[in-house]
Amino acid sequence: MLIKKPADIPYSEVTDRKLYVNRRDFIRAAAGVAAAGAGVVSISETLFAAGQPAPHGRKLDGVKKSPLSLAPEQEKTNTWDQITSYNNYYEFGTDKDSPSLVANKLKTEPWSVQVEGECAKRGNYSLDDILKGVALEERIYRHRCVEAWSMVIPWVGFPLSELIKKAEPTAKAKFVEFTTLVDYGTMPGVRQPVLRWPYVEGLRLDEAMHPLAIMAVGLYGEVLPKQNGAPLRLVVPWKYGFKGAKSIVRIRFTERQPMNSWQESAPQEYGFYSNVNPNVDHPRWTQASERRIGEFFKRKTLMFNGYADQVQGLYAGLDLKRNY
Ligand SMILES: Nc1nc2c(c(=O)[nH]1)N[C@H]1C(S)=C(S)[C@@H](COP(=O)(O)O)O[C@H]1N2
Ligand SMILES: [Mo]
Q1: Looking at ligand 1, which atom is closest to the CA of residue 83?
Q2: Which of 41, 109, 223, 226 has the most CB atoms around it within 10 Å of its CB?
Q3: Could you tell me the strand order of the sheet in which 200-204 lies?
Q4: What was the pLDDT predicted at 52?
């Protein structure tokens, strides 16, 4: 059986970007006039009633700037087109352009999240419940995929800690597990045994409470495109991108370390922590450098993806070579 790991498709990373975009345009063109009318580039339906129409979807209102963002002069933000057409979302296929071509079928409304496990406020919460009282912030973050490519992405979201506090974890809760949607009707990828679906990720509770960890609901001030994990996805900027579970439907507080999908599928390659670490190579390639999408020359990968000052305290005393 062919089990595709992120590494089995890595040459998309070196595929010339122009060829890539051309192929996508070709597929769109081939889909023809009818498809254009049906919105191959989908206008997201939205739960954010007040949002005004925006260039690609719907504008999120009242988004504040955050001091935790990268400053624009620090690093250039990737374009909307780059961020929304070069995606990993295996439920929609393993090609980088599959999610942008296929995910428009995903139904993100209504949406609810089941909160379970070691917490006082278990239950089924609508997205509106989850967003009640939260202030949306723009967080411009570096995004480093384990496949050694990277981007800079202007997310819109809110601190994961706010959601966790609302759930009131018990004293026994040490970890948080995130489970994402499986829908056979709209997700062709879940018929392939790439991973055992649903996609599951986890964090230690103190990692999850860190102010840099967010739940994202938007991009470039607009509602999050489906290929990027609408309506609600995790973003943990100091970890490899696969920790950022998309389209979350379940959050569970646990006493024991959850098993995450990539660790389950290839434990010698992907661990639980998955902190970006230029000193710990992937068994099949180096993690010392990366290719920023849109750039030609490689960049050096930064410890904790450049967030070491903020997060290294979480890992004091932990052997980062063993706990990759
Ligand atoms: N449900 C789900 N979440 C997922 C993935 C996936 O395949 N399925 N891919 C992960 C990987 S490997 C990366 S790099 C990021 C990509 O996020 P982006 O497409 O918004 O850049 O999503 C992560 N979250
Ligand atoms: Mo990734």
Answers
A1: 21
A2: 226
A3: 123-126, 112-117, 248-254, 175-180, 200-204
A4: 86
Residues 290-309, mean pLDDT to the nearest whole number = 98
* pLDDT above 60 for 41: no
Amino acid at 66: S
What are the structural domains of the chain? 6-315 (3.90.420.10)
Ligand 1 in contact with 246 (CB < 6 A)? yes
pLDDT of residue 72: 80
* Pair of tokens at residue 42: 């989908």
Q: Is the CB of 244 under 6 A from ligand 1?
A: yes
b/e code 297-321 from CB counts within 10 Å (16+ = b): eeeebbbbbbbeeebeebbeeeebe
* Closest ligand, as measured to the CA of 216: 1
**CA distance readout (Å), 143 to 8, 176, 267:** 20, 21, 22
The rounded Å distance from CA 242 to ligand 1 centre is 5
Does the pLDDT at position 256 exceed 60? yes
**Half-sphere exposure (Cβ direction) of 83: Cα atoms closer than 13 Å:** 25
End-to-end Cα spacing for the chain: 27
User: Per the structure block, which two tokens stand in for 209?
Assistant: 């409470």
**Mutational test site, ligand 1, from 82, 246, 291, max ligand atoms within 8 Å of CB:** 246
pLDDT tens, 80-113? 999 999 999 999 999 999 999 999 999 999 999 9
Cα 67 from Cα 295, distance rounded (Å) = 26
CA-to-CA separations, 88 to 93, 97, 292, in angstroms, rounded: 8, 8, 15
